[in-house]
Write a structure and sequence with these properties.
Layout lengths: L4 H7 L10 H14 L3 H11 L5 H4 L2 H6 L27 H4 L6 H14 L4 H17 L17 E4 L2 E4 H14 L4 H17 L6 H4 L8 H20 L12 H32 L1
Antiparallel strand pairs: 1-2
Length: about 280
């Protein structure tokens, strides 16, 4: 079953500690990606998802699915536990950090391969695409590429006086604050702002560096590179100073905001280019 974005916003609120970017963040990534799809990729995505189904509307399906008995197997696919030493040392090593080959890197590789092969049923192909859409968002969230304190889930903090944890703040509270709210209109407006920044603003000179690895036949190599790119932000900012027990809605959020916007923009632009490459290869 697929759910609308408003329904997903309500149902996933019960799992604030486990979601990368939350529903609004993932929808923003997908909305940005849609803007950069080639006509070939747009047709490819539409054929798989179905007429009238947007990438934004299915971008958080993987988080809903993981909470079901049928989807429990996919829980480890949403992250990679980098066993590094932030803030002094940040690194991702696939052999060290991807336990039993079950992590976001191996998942991106697996579901990309399924899409390229084109031999699965329509249902499984749709799920593979939805996983790819979701995981290319997940992998840009720094704490989804970190083992420290369960990716920050065990770092207790407050947001506007309410008890939460560091991971949840990066997933949801700070993202919604950046977007101006949690409604569809909010994330669509934020996506538009970030698209402008990619096209002619602060990210125009950076965007080429976001897609230096786009070989869909070496997806594991590319995904490892993307995870490393996110992980380093844990040393640069996320875990640079212990935030345990602190209120994050003030100066910490002010410092985090540019990183959040950059990672959301990067996720959307990269997702589009990855899907463009998949569609071209599968043609």
């Amino acid at each position: 079953m697929r759910v609308s974005i408003p329904t997903a916003l309500a149902s996933l609120a019960a799992f604030p500690c486990t979601l990368a970017w939350g529903v609004s963040g993932h929808a923003t990534v997908a909305t940005i990606a849609n803007n950069y799809l080639t006509s070939q990729a747009s047709s490819y995505v539409s054929k798989i998802l179905g007429s009238g189904v947007t990438m934004a509307s299915v971008a958080s399906w993987a988080d809903t699915y993981r909470e079901t008995n049928a989807g429990a197997f996919s829980e480890p696919f949403h992250f990679i536990d980098a066993e590094d030493s932030p803030p002094s040392s940040c690194s991702v090593e696939l052999s060290r950090d991807c336990s039993s080959s079950n992590c976001i890197v191996s998942a991106i590789s697996n579901y990309t391969s399924q899409l390229l092969a084109g031999t699965e049923s329509a249902t499984l192909t749709k799920e593979a695409l939805e996983f790819v859409i979701h995981f290319l968002g997940d992998i840009t969230q720094p704490l989804h590429c970190e083992a420290y304190e369960l990716g920050g889930n065990e770092v207790d903090v407050t947001w506007n006086g309410e008890s939460t944890n560091l991971h949840a703040c990066w997933d949801t509270q700070m993202v919604e604050e950046s977007a101006g709210g949690s409604s569809v209109a909010d994330y669509e407006a934020w996506a538009k702002t970030l698209i402008t920044a990619i096209n002619s603003g602060i990210y125009e000179s950076q965007k080429a560096s976001w897609i230096t690895c786009m070989n869909v036949n070496t997806a594991s190599t590319c995904a490892t590179q993307w995870a490393s790119d996110s992980n380093v932000i844990n040393c640069q900012y996320v875990l640079k100073v212990s935030e345990s027990g602190k209120e994050l809605s003030g100066s910490y959020y002010t410092g985090a905001k540019p990183y959040i916007a950059q990672q959301i923009a990067k996720g959307g632009y990269r997702l589009a280019n990855w899907l463009n490459a998949i569609a071209a290869a599968a043609a």
